[in-house]
Amino acid sequence: MEWFLFLPQIGVPVADIVERARVAESVGFTGVAFTDHLLAPSGDRVPIWEAMTTATWVAARTEGLRIGQLVLCDAFRHPAVLAKQAVTLQEASGGRFELGLGTGSRPRELVRFGITNDRAAQRRERLERSLEMLTQCWGSEHVQSPQPSTPIPLVLGGVGAPMLALVREYATWWNLWAPDLDRLPELRPAVGSARVSVQQMVGLVGRGQSADEVYRQSTRRFGDHVGNGLVCGDTEQLAAHFADLARGGVERCYVWFTDFAAPETLAAFGENVMPAVDATAGTWSR
């Protein structure tokens, strides 16, 4: 299992983002992923930092951590510009960048800032054109120079047939939001060679806490974003949960902590949950 910290850069100082990324790296996380919005989903007046700049800043202050987003909004950047940004960050980070890309989950901000009024189907068609241009810019046709010296992994999500077709053609990783996990056996054959990742919201139950208490705190903080995509438990229960995901074919988890990835939570997860899942996976392989 690969472990990524999903760390939305919302409502926290940049220094805190760097601190959490460094802690995640020190306890064994593979990578960190940010979000991409012009307005914070939690409220228009809540501060949110720009995604590519944040990724670059964190890449410069970590050593081996992979850096990406879950996911960039295609409509925010012309694909030729995005291709150049991605190559630059890939080379500057020593090959640690991954490009997550999507159609945009909040159309309201696209309209508010005059970016596009396109509906979902039109935005998906634009994404397809962008993926085509990215592969041209990075390919043997040398549309742009320099070319990436190592491949830049592409992360795509979605469960509809048109998006699954794009996953099949372009994606290195296919990402599922945890509420869609029950559809994994049905959809897995439709994504070709793409590897499976899952975005999972986690409420770690610490000493002296109950799962009900952590669940209530999580729903107060995140409201509708929790849905049925939240798992609450102590380290042993979380290890069992993620081991089940690994048995089901999930190869990477983007872990989104409901306490905003407090350093002590990252340490407990890295020291107890991740090794337990890895050890269990080792017994399956034998």
Overview of the molecule:
The protein has a single domain, classed as Luciferase-like domain (TIM Barrel), CATH 3.20.20. The protein contains 10 helices and 10 strands. The protein has helices at 14-26, 51-60, 79-92, 107-112, 120-138, 161-170, 184-187, 211-222, 235-247, 263-285, and strands at residues 2-6, 31-34, 66-69, 72-73, 99-102, 154-157, 173-177, 195-204, 230-233, 252-257. Strands 1, 2, 3, 4, 5, 6, 7, 8, 9 and 10 form a 10-stranded parallel beta sheet that branches. The chain is globular and about 55 Å long. The model has no long low-confidence stretch (mean pLDDT 94).
SSE topology sketch:
Elements: E1 2-6, H1 14-26, E2 31-34, H2 51-60, E3 66-69, E4 72-73, H3 79-92, E5 99-102, H4 107-112, H5 120-138, E6 154-157, H6 161-170, E7 173-177, H7 184-187, E8 195-204, H8 211-222, E9 230-233, H9 235-247, E10 252-257, H10 263-285
Parallel strand pairs: 1-2, 1-10, 2-3, 4-5, 5-6, 6-7, 7-8, 8-9, 8-10
Helix pairs in contact: 1-10, 3-5, 9-10
C-alpha-based Rg, rounded: 19 Å
CATH architecture: Alpha-Beta Barrel
Tally of structural domains: 1
Low-confidence stretches: none
**What is the number of helical segments per DSSP (H or I, 4+ residues)?**
10
Output mean pLDDT.
94
Which sequence of SSEs, written as H and E, runs from N to C? EHEHEEHEHHEHEHEHEHEH
Query: What is the count of β-strands?
Result: 10
CATH topology: TIM Barrel
Largest sheet: 10 strands, parallel
Distance between the termini: 16 Å
> What do we call the CATH homologous superfamily?
Luciferase-like domain
**Morphology call:** globular
